[in-house]
Request: fold
Amino acid sequence: MSINTKTNVVALAAEPESAEILPLKTTIPTPPALIKPAPASRLRKGVHGAVKKAVPGVLGAMVLIVLWQIAALSSSGFPTPLKTWEAAKIIFAEPFYIAGPNDMGIGWNVLASLKRVALGFGLAALVGIPLGFLIGRFSFIANMLNPVIALLRPVSPLAWLPIGLLLFQRAEPASAWTIFICSIWPMILNTAEGVMRIPQDYLNVARVLKLSEFTVMRKILFPAVLPHILTGVRLSIGIAWLVIVAAEMLTGGVGIGFWIWNEWNNLNVENIIIAILLIGVVGMLLEQGLMAIARRFSYGS
Reply:
């Protein structure tokens, strides 16, 4: 009996004939953020956003006018919106007339009030912002001044007016003093808060680089604290505009506050309402301007 042990051997080729790597055909999707919408799409989106914002505002104004009309019909002597509109057309037909030292158009009175606000508010910014830096930077100064700020900040704005009249003996600087002392606190507190929120790593780097205190202020603290400063400035301008009207009612002269008081003495209630609306518009424009500046210098931009 024999066993067949023969096996078949397959010979392999010594070298491969060829090898070619073919690239895969893949399509890289474009990120959605890089896809620019068409101009027509952007226009529709802009119009839609504007309408979405305008409609609630128009409805709010209509509700205010309806309530105003109801109040006018329910009381004697309170002007209707239409009667006030007729008075406004007369006032704004010549807003910059001058018929005497105490008889000027509403435009001159608004400009006089803005001038006082600019003086008092500017002085408050010159003093308040550097003081806020010092309070936020040095704990000794913070511990020294925080009790004083906590004591003086809640004082009513008009309580400072007699102090100003006593110190300066004239109504004009007393009004600026009242605006100064009332609008300085938000700038101090917001600046100090911004300085204290700066990451300690920034200051450690400055310490390692042996930067001077002035360089630290200029290169590190000021850019980081700028949004907080602008927030304080925005709050302060609103307070300053509120205070000036009340201060001018007491001090007299030329100004929107005195103009309102003078119209009250002449029982021109329509003119008082016009002045109230004008004060609101000017205050809103001041605040919106500062908010636009704050957004420009925010971290997000």
Summary: The chain has ten helices and no strands. Residues 1-10 have pLDDT under 50 and may be disordered. The radius of gyration is 34 Å. The longest helix spans residues 213-251.
